[in-house]
Amino acid sequence: MTETSAGRSGFPPAYLDRVGSSFTDFLGTTAPDLLPGRRTLPALPVGELAPHATTIVAATFDGGVLMGGDRRATMGNLISSRDIEKVYAADSWSVIGIAGAAGIAIEMVRLYQVELEHYEKIEGLTMSLDGKANRLAAMIRSNLGAAMQGLAVVPLFAGYDLDAAEGVSPGRIFSYDVTGGNYEERGYASVGSGSLFARNSLKKTWRPGLSADAATRTLVEALYDAADDDSATGGPDTVRRLYPIVYRVDAEGAVRLPDDEVAAVATTIVAERSAADGQG
Amino acid sequence: MTMPYYASAEQVMRDRSEYARKGISRGRSVAVLTYADGVLFIAENPSATLHKVSELYDRIGFAAVGRYSEFESLRVAGVRLADVRGYSYNRRDVTGRIIANAYAQTLGAVFTEQMKPFEVELCVAEVGDGPETDQLYRLTFDGSIVDESDFVVMGGQAEAVTSHLRQHFTAGMPLADALRVGVQALSAVSPVTAANGGAHDQLPSTQLEVAVLDRRRPKRTFRRVVGAALATLLADEQPAEAEAAPAEAAATHAPSAPAPGTPAGLGHPDAVDTAGGTEQASAQPDTQDGVGGGTDAGTPDPQQ
């Protein structure tokens, strides 16, 4: 790696060139092997061999946006992880959730987090929310080759828009496709194998201007519905006390909701569903 | 016909040193001090956007004096080195020593190999888990590196500021005390103060760039202290300064910039990582002292 030479003779020339504030572009010139999109692809589809992360949902509320994800990763017909984390804070004002090949997706999230922080440090400014969404699109686009071999990564991105005009909801959601297409969603969105069921659930329960608590419930319920019908999405695991991960981004920044809080919401939903079933 | 001339290596090096030293002493001073909860950077800098002090990594900060274009490219190189290393190893594997070494090598190479040396002096500061593990590295234009324990003063009339600090600095001061001592030391030589023919008793907050590495914060410890927060910390300022500062800051920031006036310079360490923050972010509920989240809520401040 070129970086090791720094100790011997100072910074390599590329480090001192004052061009660009993108970490990805910089790695592309100095250490391209570190970028997920620049590797030689396997000749055969390998999708069955790699763990895949599943359902992510996001919904806006009156002061920001929420994103949640279940805890399951699957490998073919097997459950490869029951406690994977698929939603991350991208920076202080945005969150990213991932569905698809877990290894590449997590690497991409790490790269994306450094990308945002790097820009912030070099420029002394936080990137605009649309700028962040575009950078992520570029990253997904570079993964298209791997996507064709069964290693697709499809993220969901949401953030608090610090530049939002008065009266416009500051919480915004962006969804992506494997080609790097970037679409802003209105109100709510979902990706992953259980997204169809989650979206239908959100369609019935989400309303504009929900409070944060109501929106949290809506989100956890959507994940419950997805797990109900999709084998690759995990429901609330009361045996191991594993519950969905939910992040909230509002005027105070991105925070992960405490497990207890999400557990309480999930337990309420399970109890209500159980009572409503009425066939026992 | 031109005559090839001979200059001894000694003479060449002396000339270059002289040249670099002159360039550096023309500027204004920067002081880097340790305090109870970390490292404090104080720079005399009338510009709100051309920074002399900035963040390199989670626990590492950077301060520089001299020619802006030169130390800016060194700063960017430091950020790149830290981020590449943190990304390919782990965030914990980025240390101030590695970055300081790279600076020393680069400055040394430029000094010996190029006609014009860099007219810069740098300080790489790293905050540890306790005061005894804080590190201050001072790097000079010729690539020499010194590990300082209490404070570093660079640029301008550095010697006068250093001797002032030697008299008044004590290790482990709370933030407000450290800031007061540092600002007094810089004010003693600054042309804007009354003693030197200026209009102020002491450097006003508009002439200062202040930042801290606060060890109590999780992850990114670097915070700028600006606007109202800075004016409040500089308690003996006239109140008019506090009002004037946010308006000026607002004009110099792009829309998505960390907030005018209130970038949560110092919020509560438990609060969300605002990375320079916004107005909303600094209005943290647990800020007890009611100054817009700007001041150091965790440190009881006997001076105010």
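qc> DSSP finds eight helices and ten strands in chain B.
qc> done
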